[in-house]
Each structure stands twice: as structure tokens, then as C-alpha cells.
Amino acid sequence: MLLTRVVFRALPLQAALALAFSSGAVQAQSLVDLYEHARGYDATYVGAKAQYDANLFLANQALGGVLPNVALTTSTTRNYWDYRPDNSAVGLETTRFYSSSQASLTLSQPIYRPVLWAAYKQSGPQMQLFLAQYEMAEQDLLVRVTQAYFDVLNSEDSLELIRAQKRAVGEQLASAKRNFEVGTSTITGVRDAQARYDLSVAQEVAAENDLRVKHLALDLVTGVQNAAPKRLNNIKELIPTPKEAAESFVSQAEVNSPVIKQAKLNLDIARLEIDKAWSAHKPTIDAQISVQGIRNDGGGSNNSSVSSHIYNPSAALVMSVPIFAGFATQNRVRQTVSLEQKAQADFDAATRNTAQATRTAYFGVVSGLSQIAAYEAAEASSQSSLDSNKLGYSVGVNINIDVLNAQSQLYQTKRDLAKARYDVLVGKLKLLQAVGTLTPQDLQPINNLLQP
């Protein structure tokens, strides 16, 4: 009996996805668009920006310790005077009320204050530390937005491919039933196709839920409700293969990584903290200039009813020498020395971990590009295998399970290929993050790969 040969061929992935998601193309957002939304919405980043601003003000407070301090003090007192001499020959008893007003203006300038100067020296590394913390928060946001963006696209790809596979299995199930009815195949072929179709339905439900969750994650980080990422338009030239060796990126990371910068600055601050603790042993010298004025209305405490004014300018050089503070200073020095040792260990750990993270990210990109090439070759081979198995099934050489296995292999290869493309784009940003050179401008080359 002659059977009509029908060879199933899946639509190209980009065409299928463009058709499936064409309804939301008008509202689709690019990666740069969603990142800009995230900068003003993501709580972690906004909090880091506010902390950076607060820390700058905190570091600037150290300047107040070495600049002049000016204070104005005023007071007004209402007095009652009751004079009663024990010997009446001395004078008459006197009773009266009088007011006394006092004002003083004092300027104090630290001349030699080792503790304050040590704190002022610390403010420089502290401001650099706060900047490194902010840079790390910005780079983290870039990676999180990109990861969430491509997670949605990857889930959309998986869902569409599962649906395409379900349709293909459905066609194969219908073909197996027809062949069984005419007696050219056994019931086993029908049951195999039915089992594979039921599995596709279950996979579709799981993929729909995964897509829903990935959309929620993207909405959470960007603040855009029902965000619709633009799809990749150019899948042939994603990113070039890194020309430098892994150790070249490690060397860059040792200079630029915010993680290493923070550890190094913490070490510098810890060393200055030792100097500040030692400074508590040293004397302090301050210069003070004060102008004081007193006005007595209606007399004073000298048995006189005549109002008076008193002006008392003064200048002083004040030196204070610490002698004994109950061993507090010595213990404070020992504490700072131990903290400096900890900061050194943290710096060593940050350097080693960053080098390892950089190498991991580098080889992830290189391996990802190689995987893409391998998956593209596997996709072509799987498509050819499916075509051959379908042809063989139509002429009775192959059985139904051979076609089903070939279909499963083809769609799994397509899903792996799509994921590998997204992973290599995110991996490139993670490599730049590990090196410490990631900036918002690095999103633009990826943004150019998206559909207009």
C-alpha cells in the first residue's frame, strides 16, 4: 500500500518566536530601557546609592575636627540683692533687684591633635571605599537585570519549542493511529506516541509556570509590570572570542575589581586606625581666643546700685598631656593591630577569590562560544536525522519510536542552543564584572543585537 510521505520540518526558531510573540512587539522593551527603569526602582540599588551619599557626609565630618570651632554663649539672670551688715555702723541695709547679662564668643583652633589628624587622613580612603561599594552595587544591578531579561527570553524559547514539539508529536500520534487502523503498524507505535504526547503536555504546563515566574522576577528588579523583552535579532555574531589569555583578565581584575579595591582600602584604613590609637598617647595643643561681655543693670553684688559693663577678651594656648587612662589606650592599640591583621587576611582572600572568579567567568565565555558552535552543528544534524527517520517511517523501514526520539533530540538541541546564546551574553557581563570594568555602556552592544 502506497503511503503519502509527509516530512515534518520545524519553523526556524526566530520565525516561530516572532510569530508567537508578535502581539506584544509594540510594547516590547530593550535591555537598556529596562535597566534605566531598574536604576530608579530596584530597592537594593537605591539603598546602595543612599548609603553612598550618607557615607560621603560621614567621611566629610572628619574635616570638622581640624578646622576652627566657633561658639557663642549668652545668658540673662535676674538677681535679688539683700544686704544686711552685722554692724549697723558699717552701712545701711540695702534690698534691690538687678539684671545681669553675659555673652561670650570663643574661637578654638586645634594646633596639635594627632587623633583628629589621623581621623582626617582616614577620610580619604573611606571616601574611595564608599565609591567602590557603590560601583559594585551598580555592576551587580547590571548583571541582575541582564540575567532576568534573558531568563524571560529563554523561558519563552523553551515554551515555544515545547509547544512545537507537542504539535509534532501530535502529528506523529495521528499518523501512528492511521497506520494502525490500516494494519501497517502495531499498537506499540500508537502507545509510544501517546506517551510522548502526554509528556509534552506536562512539559508545557511546567514551561508556562516557569515563564510566569521569570516574568515576575524581571518585573521585581525593573519595576515594569508585564515587561516584554525584545528578542534577539542577530544570533550569528553575538560576541567575539576573547583575544587575551585568562591571566591578562586576572591582572586587570587585581587593579580594577571593586572587591579587591574595598579589601585594599579596608587594609589602609586599618593601618591608619593603628596610628590613631597610638596618637592617644600624645599631648594635644589648642589655641583659644575668647571675648566675654557682662552687663549689670541696676547694680551688682558689690553693694553698688550703679549699672556697669565689663569686657574681658582673652587668648590662651592650652596643652593637655595624657598620663594614665586605665590601660584603655594600650588595649585599644592591641585591638587595632589585630584588626589590621584581619584586614590583611581579607585582602588576600579577596585577591584569590577574584582571580578564581575571573578565570571561571573567562572560561565560561570561551566554553559558551564553543558550545554554541557545537549546538548549531548538532541542530543541523538532528534536523537531518529527523527527516531521515520520518522518511524511513513512511516507507516502513523505521518504527514510530525512532521518529519520536529524533524529534525529542532535535527540540532538546534547539533549547540548549538558545540557552547557550543567552548564557554567553550574560557571561560576558559577568567577566567584565569580575574584572571590575563593567559599566552601563557595556549593555549597548548587547542591545544592538535585539530586534528594533
Distance between the termini: 52 Å
Q: Tell me the major beta sheet.
A: 4 strands, antiparallel
- Count of helical regions: 10
Please state roughly what percent of the residues sit in beta strands, choosing from under 5%, 5-15%, 15-25%, 25-35%, 35-45% or over 45%: 5-15%
* CATH architecture term of the largest domain: Up-down Bundle
CATH superfamily of the largest domain: Outer membrane efflux proteins (OEP)
Structural class, from helix and strand content?
alpha+beta
Q: What's the overall average pLDDT, rounded?
A: 87
**Mind telling me the C-alpha Rg?**
40 Å
CATH topology of the largest domain: Outer membrane efflux proteins (OEP)
Query: Biggest sheet, strands in spatial order?
Result: 1-2-3-4
- Low-pLDDT parts are 1-26
Count of distinct strands: 4
Structure characterization notes:
With 452 residues, this protein is α+β, with helices and mostly antiparallel strands. The protein has two domains: 13-66 and 113-281 and 325-447, Outer membrane efflux proteins (OEP) (Up-down Bundle); 69-112 and 283-321, Single Sheet (Outer membrane efflux proteins (OEP)). It is built from ten helices and four strands; from the N terminus they run αααββααααββααα. The protein has helices at residues 13-20, 31-41, 43-60, 114-182, 187-222, 246-256, 258-279, 328-394, 400-435, 443-447, and strands at 69-83, 94-112, 284-297, 308-320. It has a four-stranded antiparallel β-sheet with strand order 1-2-3-4, with no helix packed on it. It is elongated, with a radius of gyration of 40 Å. The two termini are 52 Å apart.
